[in-house]
Design a protein that fits this description.
The complex is a heterodimer of chains A (114) and B (116). With 114 residues, chain A is mainly beta. In chain A, 0% of the residues lie in helices and 50% in strands. Chain A contains no helices and 12 strands. Chain A has strands spanning 3-6, 11-14, 19-21, 23-26, 32-38, 44-50, 56-59, 62-65, 75-77, 86-93, 102-104, 108-113. In chain A, the strands form 3 sheets. In chain A, strands 2, 5, 6, 10, 11 and 12 form a 6-stranded mixed β-sheet that branches. In chain A, strands 3-9-8-7 form a 4-stranded antiparallel β-sheet, with no helix packed on it. In chain A, a hairpin with a 5-residue loop joins strand 5 and strand 6 (44-50). Chain B has strands at 5-7, 10-13, 19-24, 31-37, 44-50, 53-56, 65-68, 75-79, 88-95, 106-107, 111-115. The N and C termini of chain B lie far apart (37 Å). The chains are: A mainly beta (114), B mainly beta (116).
């Protein structure tokens, strides 16, 4: 079945460091790909998405490119801030047909130190 | 615009007891989801409603879990009887539409259940 694998955390960085969180997927068909973020004490929020191969999703300085050839959707940010500390989830949507349920990875905790 | 509301935020029960969670989706959203998030794992879909009909409940442990969405608005998820392994955060999400194309899912803050 469809699945998402993302790098284990925690990832600890200093402020202004470069961030990469790896995500690979297994899917039949043509899924849409997402990054969700969960700040402490809050619900999941959509950070960015890409719906087809070679699309680049971007938001708040974060970027991820849908790479069909490597089945990857790695999250990057050039300069992280303390406020970026959160759990990041990579997800895919099986989004054709009757349902569009999300399949999530296990999440990666990012801790940014001042 | 008000977000997805869930209650209670926290619940502690003994095993074999019953518990119910409530969710009020964003107004006008046709699709409602319940996810289970066990500590250290990503959320897993339990059930999806389109209006008041069930679209996908393939991952719902039907011997102990039940859910309903009367009148196609708010929803309740019930566990009876609870087991230790049901300890998790239960997330409710809603989206404008669920069929044929992806619409963003908006998540509530979740209910953290601890089964002792």
């Amino acid at each position: 079945g469809n699945s998402v694998t993302q790098m284990e955390g925690p990832v600890t960085l200093s402020e202004e460091a470069f961030l990469t969180i790896n995500c690979t997927y297994t899917a039949t068909g043509y899924p849409s790909l997402f990054w969700y973020v969960q700040y402490p004490g809050e619900g999941l929020q959509l950070l960015l998405k890409a719906t087809k191969a070679d699309d680049k999703g971007s938001n708040k300085g974060f970027e991820a490119t849908y790479r069909k050839e490597t089945t990857s959707f790695h999250l990057e940010k050039g300069s992280v801030q303390v406020s970026d500390s959160a759990v990041y989830f990579c997800a895919l949507s099986e989004g054709r047909g009757a349902t569009n349920k999300l399949i999530f990875g296990t999440g990666t905790l990012l801790a940014v130190q001042p | 615009e008000a977000g997805v509301a869930q209650s209670p935020r926290y619940k502690i029960i003994e095993k074999r007891q019953s518990v119910a969670f409530w969710c009020n989706p964003i107004s006008g959203h046709a699709t409602l989801y319940w996810y289970q998030q066990i500590l250290g794992q990503g959320p897993k879909l339990l059930i999806q409603f389109q209006n008041n009909g069930v679209v996908d409940d393939s991952q719902l442990p039907k011997d102990r879990f039940s859910a309903e969405r009367l009148k196609g608005v708010d929803s309740t998820l019930k566990i009876q009887p609870a087991k230790l392994e049901d300890s998790a955060v239960y997330l409710c999400a809603s989206s404008p539409s669920g069929r044929g194309s992806y619409n963003e899912q908006f998540f509530g803050p979740g209910t953290r259940l601890t089964v002792l």
